[in-house]
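Try this one yourself first.
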């Protein structure tokens, strides 16, 4: 080979090397571009599903993906729970793979190292590779991503793996922030609810204190007036005009008595008579008394009551008073008829009530007139009523509120004008009698 030919060959080799280098630089810039795009997209405050979508796109841009599953650590059980999977029908196969990896110890090895790993698959056969990407921050492990790539392990480059590591780290940080934000939001909500309950309880207590003395003073003379009206009405020689006037007087004094008795319930605060209450029986009993009225007002009642509800400790009479109040409010909200759905179920997890006890959730959902946003914050206030012509005193819900509170429970409402109202009562199943 002549000297010129040797130099030519050498130059060709150099050009080839330069081209390869140039290609590598191009690929690197491309990956950096992907990473910065990923950061831009994921930086916006979002929920876990949104983060997962962006993360999945990022993974797909870096490597060929057949199946991809996101497992997150459950805060209560500390187990890895499958939160998202793509495609959606591959959930069970992903779980099986993780279970196997846990059993053979591979899983904990990956979690402890906090580094991605290529591992042989137990479930997915053929020339496929599993990539496990731990999602962790300095303080804790949030979860793990399982990626099934339809290529052999040797075809996965170090660059791709590095890029996946960076994506996983970015994703972990954003997820951690989102989870913390979510927890803070929930705690804030619980605090706000507790605060609203304290304000409501204080309102009831001050009404009680104010009216205690006055109520007794009113009832005594009122009884005398009513007695005399009765006596006059017994007189057969009365003209019809006279007896009409007396009738009006009797109705109005009955109304005063009703208001004052309502007030006394606040002030007296009669101690609840605590005993075992079977909620199913209680609902059935109250409903049986209401059935006729419901039929008369064309109200269809739909019952969805769990037959195996646990008993609670409470005051049967006071609780039935609450149910009556809710029934009569629903009736008044549906003057042209409608549907009232009454449901009751037991549940073990509740953030409506403080503490961890089991509880019973009772719901009254009507298709009535609804309550406007302006009024919904006032309906538990004593003497707040929108019922005209003296049809309401405005004590039903405030009394109910107090009763449910005495039982360690909560009552809340959601409503839409012209669509209906939904009352939810939560009552703890195990209740300390000292609460009452
Ligand atoms: N299911 C409901 N649908 C629409 N509005 C309701 C419903 N329940 C209660 N309200 C509204 O809340 C107000 C307060 O209810 P609450 O039971 O305390 O008093 P009331 O029914 O007016 O009088 P009372 O119960 O003392 O006879 C009612 O006047 C009504 O406007
Ligand atoms: Mg009422």
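Now uncover the answer:
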């Amino acid at each position: 080979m002549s000297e010129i030919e040797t130099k030519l060959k050498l130059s060709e080799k150099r050009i080839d090397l330069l081209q390869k280098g140039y290609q590598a630089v191009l690929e690197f810039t491309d990956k950096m571009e992907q990473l910065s795009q990923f950061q831009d997209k994921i930086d916006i405050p979002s929920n876990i599903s949104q983060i997962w979508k962006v993360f999945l796109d990022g993974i797909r841009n870096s490597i060929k993906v057949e199946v991809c599953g996101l497992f997150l650590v459950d805060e209560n059980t500390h187990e890895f729970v499958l939160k998202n999977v793509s495609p959606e029908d591959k959930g069970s196969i992903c779980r099986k793979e993780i279970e196997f990896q846990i059993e053979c110890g591979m899983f904990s090895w990956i979690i402890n190292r906090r580094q991605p790993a290529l591992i042989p698959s137990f479930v997915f056969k053929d020339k496929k590779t599993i990539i496990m990407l731990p999602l962790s921050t300095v303080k804790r492990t949030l979860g793990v991503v399982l990626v099934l790539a339809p290529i052999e392990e040797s075809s996965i480059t170090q660059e791709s793996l590095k890029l996946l590591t960076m994506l996983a780290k970015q994703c972990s940080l954003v997820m951690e922030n989102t989870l913390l934000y979510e927890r803070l939001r929930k705690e804030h909500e619980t605090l706000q609810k507790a605060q609203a309950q304290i304000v409501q309880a204080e309102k009831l207590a001050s009404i009680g204190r104010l009216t205690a003395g006055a109520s007794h003073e009113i009832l005594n003379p009122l009884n005398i007036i009513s007695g005399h009206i009765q006596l006059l009405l017994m007189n057969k020689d009365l003209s019809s005009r006279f007896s009409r006037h007396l009738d009006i007087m009797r109705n109005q004094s009955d109304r005063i008595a009703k208001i004052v008795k309502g007030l006394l319930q606040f002030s007296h605060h009669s101690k609840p008579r605590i005993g075992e209450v079977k909620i199913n029986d209680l609902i059935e009993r109250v409903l049986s008394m209401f059935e006729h009225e419901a039929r008369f007002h064309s109200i269809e009642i739909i019952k969805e009551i769990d037959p195996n509800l646990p008993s609670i400790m409470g005051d049967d009479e006071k609780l039935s008073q609450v149910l009556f109040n809710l029934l009569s409010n629903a009736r008044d909200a549906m003057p042209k008829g409608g549907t009232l759905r009454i449901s009751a179920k037991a549940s073990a997890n509740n953030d409506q009530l403080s503490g961890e006890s089991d509880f019973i959730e009772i719901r009254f959902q009507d298709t009535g007139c609804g309550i406007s946003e302006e009024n919904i914050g006032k309906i538990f206030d004593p003497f707040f009523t929108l019922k005209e012509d003296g049809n309401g005193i405005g004590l039903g819900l405030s009394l109910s509120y107090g009763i449910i509170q005495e039982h360690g429970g909560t009552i809340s409402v959601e409503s839409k004008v012209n669509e209906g109202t939904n009352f939810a009562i939560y009552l703890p199943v195990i209740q300390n009698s000292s609460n009452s």
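Discussion: The chain has ten helices and twelve strands. The longest strand covers residues 338-347.
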